[in-house]
Design brief:
By secondary structure, the protein is mainly β. It is 0% helix and 51% strand. The strands form two sheets. Strands 2, 4, 5, 6, 9, 10 and 11 form a seven-stranded mixed sheet that branches. The N and C termini lie far apart (40 Å).
Length: 122
């Protein structure tokens, strides 16, 4: 079992940037594809982006293409989500978890961590 901890959220103005981190503990991180999800108040949780085990393949929701970039550093057991040109509609709690690519579907043994809050003001 891999445990993931999200960080890097905060409050920014529209057009600003944030870099989220998903740090893993455990020795199996590198064999897991990782995805970012977000959930806004009153909304369903939605997939944002995911990345294959070696970082060679990345996937994005249409709403964030061209603005967000996912990457990973397996040596640091960390997945990043660079978020640029942020919009108020990006406001949500962001979570990371293990997924299956290419559709970024959480694995059967996935677990949701505490998440990190992203708030974008207009």
């Amino acid at each position: 079992q891999v445990r993931l901890v999200e960080s890097g959220g905060g409050l920014v103005q529209a057009g600003g940037s944030l870099r989220l981190s998903c740090a893993a503990s455990g020795s199996i991180f590198r064999i897991n594809a990782i995805g970012w999800f977000r959930q806004a108040p009153g909304k369903q949780r939605e997939g944002v982006s995911c990345i294959s085990t070696d970082g060679g393949n990345t996937y994005y929701a249409e709403s964030v293409k061209g603005r967000f970039t996912i990457s990973r550093d397996n040596g640091k057991s960390t997945v990043y989500l660079q978020m640029n040109s942020l919009k108020p509609e990006d406001t949500a709690i962001y979570h990371c978890t293990t997924v299956r690519v290419p559709h970024c579907i959480p694995t059967l043994d996935h677990s949701w961590g505490q998440g990190t809050q992203v708030t974008v003001s207009s």
